[in-house]
């Protein structure tokens, strides 16, 4: 009976096939199939790619987790070796230094031999790509292996080299995203769409950050702040979706692997919730922010100068050009020798891993107050329950070690950033800031040992709160971002210090942004990558600069009525990528654009015909074999600099023609814009 | 001696005046003056307006705090009256209802009599203004008083009317910002700059939200998500600065007034930190998000339909047009009668204020588990320590009251949104979501009374966490935002539920965004405000639509060689705001734009001359008295719809001319774009 009903129901629209009729419950099966079809149609609608975003998030989380897992094993093996090797100082020294030196030199050699793009963080290059520049092969999936292996080795060398993984993870994520969208294009046979690709890259950057820190909010905000000067809300939602998938998966794996009971934050803190800080402490938080801002300026300046020095100095530039691994080995050897624990490393807590550094710096208690009367021992190995013992030295006290740590890490970090290996520079900066904050927090807890009195109860000052604010402020100042504040909350799982941390970050940013370009911008400048400068608010004067003032009027045009001779002359004498095509030499009315490559091809393919060369004109070739592309957007000489800059930035353009009443009168590219903007800031001497 | 040195030092550059010489310590005074001058120059550089942002933040915080303070006093007086009036039911009923009815009718009458713009939240109008539409007088400072007084009365009527303050605060903040920038323009004599004004408005919106909730992060993100489809990072930093100033000042005032010991969050919760939730609970969080999404669709649909009904129904539309206070009075009387505590209000915790509603819903304990064995009494007044007693009824249990609350508030809220008073609709939605979450959380705590077992210890399920997720998810779905998640963390001062809340918000948003326009967009549609629809990702087909397909080719041009007769004919037969001016009737080359108003003026002022009318042409007038404005940007027929849409949206344009080889061939405005976009979604029937 039921089958009959199924038959009857199915017959008018979709006739039920014989095979379906024989299998049981055709109605239910048809219902399920229809439901699945509907779901598929909903999920995979044309243009929708939520499944792609989810795949990206999950993939990156898997990679991040697997890498952490592998790196932890290698680090544990190093610790075991160092512990078991005996008491001979030479052997211990060798075991301490050879391990990271070998890893870093392998990382450097391996990754550089596969692709020259694998060094550094990758965020400056991504910034450049998102502004519309095409960096060939930078997003190619074949760099992936080099970057993964290289980064794993870098991370496995631990706190000796003191580098992180954020930047390379953003790069990795972007590579996967570019690959996924290419696969999707092939599968759906859609035409390539630059805008969609850019959307994917922005999302990928957010996923990269989110899967390293399990922090979706700060991942999204970081990608907003760092990557471009304008942001579409449509991207924002997609970023949140993908970043949440990534972060969730990343923490889920930790739970599945029984590292944790449930999903929690990475560096869980236990700050007091009821009275976390007293009102006057806000002042010290702001002062801490200002100090971090000043420090970040010094750091950025020194880092840029040193990077420039390495690139221009005869000896080092030769070394970098010919044998990068040698340079890496030398630099790592210096870093490893200094951090050797029984030596100088004793005074800078070098036995702690980077995670332990942060864990210990965010500690609740005031070390200075605890160690005033009792002196904790220096354990044979770091005590997981009392990691902060590493920061204490009987003679130097915690202040000495913290200050020494800051002084030494300042230049060691700058040295480390010059090593050509895949590495992130965010985490070390974050830890450096945390140590700065801790130092000030400890000083305050000693200066005001009676603490905060609220409601009759005395609460001690929490130096960990200052470490949190310092970390956010310093890393925010170096990268020119504010989202580091929210990163600090997401990492620690507490948001009680919301306002003081935000104030510190703002103070630090105010100083850093007015004095130095950000870390990423600095790298772009040193690496001579193309970029379009900002027009800051204060640069908009009362007398608007218009396109006419700065456009380049010397354009080479091709006219439709040009003879072949003339065309050949133009093509051979210039080498721009595309020529504006005008109606006639006389009228100069802009018709479209001809690509040089296509024109050359057409000229070469042109059959020798009976018409003499000087009588044939460009129009014939165009009609036959060389397509003309339309110009969809052009400037007018009266367009203001500001409007032109906006157009370039918002539409990711690189050059535009200027037309006056239809006539091509010039063009504007990044070069002209840059010059015009720099003239705004430093007006040229009046004639 | 010291004065002599001062004299000698001062003499070469700045000669020290006699008066300065006589006063003590000229050197120090000069140093201080120079320092102050330097600081002033740094702070008040041309184009800088950080001081303005700070002023805005501090002002809004002061207004917000003062309003809260005044409203609290009025609410307390109402409570006192209700308590002291005796046991007569009639008197109690009257004291319960007359108070809000009087306040709301006064609010409605007062604010509407001053300005018709004062009703509602103001965010939809702000969205429209930011997209480039000029709404006259909407940002005029004279509306300020009406809105402040009206809003205070609305808030003072308490949880009876159940409305919040976010929307109007955004409007107030925007009004102050517009006023401040006008004052600044006058003071610095800079020329008006539309872009700068827009920047100020975006910042003001963030400040508005931040000073209501003391939540700078969510204020900024809210303004990103709600106000426009593109966002500049430059605005983002300014928003953070102003919002932090505002939020800090707002909480500072609370500390100064001894309401708090130190700066903390508004609705401090005390969720368990170590194991806040178990992994399987994530599933229920997502289900909760989905339920909130479905509920929000129902709410948005009903709200829009009812608002449309009120506007079109013969009786109500007449009432609204002639006597708004009467409508307000009637609606409030219904709401107040239902919430009368000894009546139906008993079952919906109507004695609690809105703040107390949230405080109680975020409670740690499971009410259902507590009340299984013992039955708490219904106190004569809400007990500040155990606010949740209000949610318990011996027969109905907490499930009954929560469900009843949801059902009743659903339509009461829709009714309340139609009352023409200044009021915010975010807070009630947030509470509604919290109640939804609480209901599900309580159900779960009963379904799994053994709770979570982790590390051998049993932890009960926290229904408060679900309330938090529900609040964020429902309010996020209604407003189509994700930042409500971070608002929930900022409000409660805890971020332990980061991932589950985010997942719930994403689930809710996925459903709501695919089914209904957001609350603000819905209001824009109902109020018939102009707007430009989005092109969603899926609407970009493979066959690009270009401007040629949808541009309006019927343009009325003025040619330079037109005779006066023809010009007058054109001007009298059309009434567009501006005419494209072409070189000649024959060539149609676009030269610029002539404003109709200016042209009319010039035509009228034209002296009767000896040249006969038909021999004089437009060119003469232009040369004499009517300025031509340049066209700085024009489209080409080959520009794609997507590019054109981007241009309109990013540059805040309203119409552009289309030129082909310099010739004006058509124009594109919002009307054409809207039609083209709707054709993308619902392709017209093939011809």
From TrEMBL, chains A, B:
Gene Ontology CC terms, in alphabetical order: basolateral plasma membrane; chloride channel complex
Keyword Ion transport (UniProt): yes
Catalysed reactions listed for this entry: bromide(in) = bromide(out); nitrate(in) = nitrate(out); chloride(in) = chloride(out); iodide(out) = iodide(in)
Entry GO MF terms: metal ion binding; voltage-gated chloride channel activity
Keywords: Calcium, CBS domain, Cell membrane, Chloride, Chloride channel, Ion channel, Ion transport, Membrane, Metal-binding, Repeat, Transmembrane, Transmembrane helix, Transport
Localisation: Basolateral cell membrane; Membrane
Any one Pfam family match given in the protein's UniProt record, by short name: Voltage_CLC
Coiled coil: none
Keyword Transmembrane listed: yes
Membrane topology listed for this record: Multi-pass membrane protein
Origin: domain of life: Eukaryota
Membrane spanning residue stretches: 50-70, 90-110, 161-180, 201-224, 282-302, 323-340, 396-416, 452-474, 486-508
Start and end residues of each CBS domain: 551-609
Family: Belongs to the chloride channel (TC 2.A.49) family.
Record note on quaternary structure: Homodimer. Interacts with BSND.
Protein name: Chloride channel protein
High-level lineage: Eukaryota, Metazoa, Chordata, Craniata, Vertebrata
